[in-house]
Design a protein that fits this description.
Beta-Lactamase; 14 helices; alpha+beta; 4 domains; five-stranded antiparallel β-sheet; 16 strands; about 500 residues
């Protein structure tokens, strides 16, 4: 009977042990018993099979002698490890220890042990405990420590925030950038410091960053303690394991200001281009109006005056009067009509030189002759190369007006005694014209071109036909006006191809 009960008890014990072993196999660690005998020897009466993966030893290898387990403890941790066991055995206090194993292949594993001691009848101490591998956790802690060092020493402003958008920590660079102390920022909502106009965008980005993907180069405006507004570019990552956002900010205020300056400059340039286009269009309209008025004056008024002159000449014959009084009246009337006819020609010529219809070179040649005759200043014209004459009317008018304005400046402002004009074809340009005088000159740096509408008008005319005009001068050394029109410059309708000539034309 007693034998039967004993067998039943053994069977129950084996069944319980089997259940415990099945449970132990499901636990991510080693369940064990560890005994320290009075003589100092050690053994492991029981250990789960997980010891193979952690200690690289089988249960049977430490069942009678645990010295092989201690052989794998890291040399730097061994002394403290053995001392903690002795303290727990002496005082019967729970054993808790973090230590490292180091294997022959150089691999290192971090372990965490927890066990409760009890004294046995023979004086031994028996621990029931649990050991887990904490290598990954230690690596994470080490990485966090390294990040914290980087966080504190980084020159880049950095912060850590909770999922609700409140600061948990800021580094010194962030404090320096914003002017707020760490205590003024920590536990405060991030949005409290964002410019109100940017808060909704920032909220949307934070939600995406937490739930969907990291933030890369997200830009918003931040209000510093002194009230200054700065532009920040953010890179942020939400760590789902820790439930925090790690963010780095870059101050891009300087770049934004530069971009704004460039944008403003482009807008100014566009505005100037639009004004120039409008001015060029207005000038074309004026030139068309001048052309129309010149033809009306020349054709209508000129014809009327010509007929009137003929009628005056025939008046004496028709009346039959022949005396000194009538002769004087006739001469005076004819003289007045001649002056009127000349005035009509002058007005029509000033409005639009009729010689432009014969070619730009002929028109400039006539202008030089009239300038020399009226001012007494020699103005030779030199033409180099083949001037084909296929200039757009807009280009020809601009050339002629620039010549007119340059000659007027030479006579009225420069006190020149000689002016030379050279027109060159080729050399990568459709035409290059140089107008040189020996007048008093001026300092271009001190000259306010905005107050000199003549020079400003010359530049604008050059720009309107795709050309480039430069003015070089020094006090006492005269001035040189250079106009260069490239081959691909734009223009309106072409003038008649009547001006195919070259050579040195000198008009004294």
């Amino acid at each position: 009977m007693d034998l039967t009960k004993h067998k039943q008890a053994d069977a129950a014990q084996q069944e319980t042990l089997g259940i415990l072993q099945k449970i132990a196999r499901q636990i991510p660690g080693v369940v064990y018993q560890f005994r320290l005998r009075p003589d100092g020897s050690t053994c492991v009466p029981y250990t789960s099979d997980a010891i193979r993966g952690i200690y690289r030893l089988g249960p049977e290898e430490v069942h009678e002698d645990a010295s092989r387990a201690f052989a794998n403890v890291h040399p730097d941790d061994l002394e403290n490890h053995l001392a903690s066991i002795q303290t727990s055995a002496r005082d019967l206090t729970p054993w808790q220890q973090e230590y490292r194993l180091k294997f022959d292949d150089g691999a290192v594993r971090w372990l965490s042990g927890n066990a409760m001691p009890q004294r046995e009848a023979d004086g031994s101490t028996l621990w029931h405990g649990f050991i887990t591998d904490i290598t990954d956790r230690k690596r994470l802690e080490q990485g966090r420590e390294q990040y914290l060092k980087f966080f504190l020493l980084s020159a880049e402003p950095m912060c850590i925030a909770d999922p609700f958008g409140c600061f948990k920590r800021v580094n010194p660079a962030f404090v320096k950038l914003t002017g707020f102390s760490e205590s003024e920022l920590v536990a405060k909502p991030f949005l409290d410091f964002v410019l109100p106009e940017d808060r909704q965008r920032t909220t949307d980005e934070m939600m995406l960053q937490v739930a969907v993907r990291p933030s890369m180069e997200f830009e918003n405006r931040y209000v510093c303690k002194g009230g200054d507004v700065i532009f920040l570019s953010w890179d942020a990552y939400f760590d789902k394991n820790e439930g925090v956002t790690y963010a780095t900010a870059r101050n891009i205020t300087g770049r934004k200001q530069a971009e704004e300056s460039i944008r403003a400059e482009l807008e100014i340039r566009a505005s100037r281009a639009a004004i120039r286009k409008l001015a060029a269009h207005a000038e074309e309209l004026r030139e068309d109006e001048r052309k129309f008025i010149a033809r009306e004056v020349h054709d209508e008024l000129g014809q009327v005056l010509s007929v009137l002159r003929m009628d005056i000449a025939l008046l004496k014959d028709r009346t039959g009067l022949n005396n000194a009084v009538m002769d004087g009246i006739e001469r005076n009337m004819l003289a007045l009509v001649d002056r009127a006819i000349q005035g009509v020609r002058n007005v029509a010529g000033n409005l639009r030189p009729p010689l432009l219809d014969m070619g730009i070179i002929a028109a400039i040649e006539r202008q030089c002759a009239e300038f020399a005759r009226n001012s007494g200043i020699p103005c030779p014209l030199k033409v180099v190369g083949d001037i084909a004459g296929n200039f757009a009317e807009k280009q020809a008018l601009a050339l002629f007006r620039i010549v007119q304005e340059s000659l007027a400046n030479a006579a009225h402002h420069a006190a020149a005694t000689r002016v030379e004009i050279t027109i060159t074809a080729g050399n990568g340009a459709k035409i290059e014209m140089e107008i040189r005088d020996n007048g008093r000159g001026f300092d271009p740096e001190e000259h306010d071109e905005n107050k000199s509408f003549g020079l400003l008008g010359m530049r604008e005319r050059a720009i309107s036909i795709g050309g480039e005009l430069n003015i070089a001068s020094k006090p006492g050394q005269g001035a040189v006006v250079t106009l260069r029109i490239p081959d691909d410059s734009a223009g309106g309708g072409e003038l008649p191809n009547l001006d195919r000539r070259s050579g040195d034309r000198r008009v004294q």
